[in-house]
Amino acid sequence: MRYAAEIFKPFTQYGSSPSYSIFDGQSTVELKGYPGYGFALNRLDKDIMRPIGLAAVAIWLNENFTKSNVSQEKIIMIEEAQNIFDDEDVGGPFAETAYREYRSTNTGVCAVTQGLEVLRRSNAGVAAVKNSPIKIIGKQESIDIEMIQDELRLSEGEADFLLNAKRGEVILRIEDESDIVFTKASNYEHMMFTTDPNDPAFYERKELLKEKLNRDSALEMQRQEGA
C-alpha cells in the first residue's frame, strides 16, 4: 500500500508538480442542483495530462450530461475554444460532434474565442459556424476578418465596424439578421470574469474563491467527523 501511495502521490496536491495533480480534491462530488459547473484543464501538463483530462471530460459530457435529461435545456460553454478545436485527437472531434449532434439531446454549444481564424482552420470551427444561429462578434484584426468574412456573411460595413470597435461594442447576428449592440458587465460580472492581472477585481475573485474553498473543506471535515 505504501509503495502504491508513493506512485499515486505525484497525481495529487501533495506531489511536486501541480500540472500533474489531477486528483487535487474530492474524487466524488454531487452536481445535482447546481446551475452550472466548469472543468479547468489549463493547469494540467500540456503533453500528457491535459489530453487525458480532455478525454475524460468529453466522455463525461457526452454520456452523463447531454443524455441525463433530454427534456431539460442545457448548454456547454467552450472557453478559449481554439485550444479545443485545434486538438485533432480529442477536442476537435468532440466539439464537431457536439455542434452537429447535441441538439438531439436539447443541448446547445457556445464557443468563445478571441480570433475568428480558428473557425476556418478546423472541422470543429466550420461546424460551429454552420450550426450556430446566434453569433456575437467583437473587435477583430483585419487578417481574421479577411479569412472568415465570407463564412460569416459580413458586409463591408460590418467588417469595417469590427476593425474599429471599442470595448463592449459587438455585432449580434441571428440567422441572417444583424445589429450593433453595446454591452457592459455589472461590477459582479466584471469581477467574476476579468482576466487582467493588473485589475484589482482579478485578485478579489481569487480571494473569494479561496474563502469558499476553505469553507467547503471545513464543512466536509465536519461531515466526515460526524459520520
TrEMBL record:
InterPro entries: P-loop_NTPase
Protein name: TraG P-loop domain-containing protein
Organism: Candidatus Desulfosporosinus infrequens
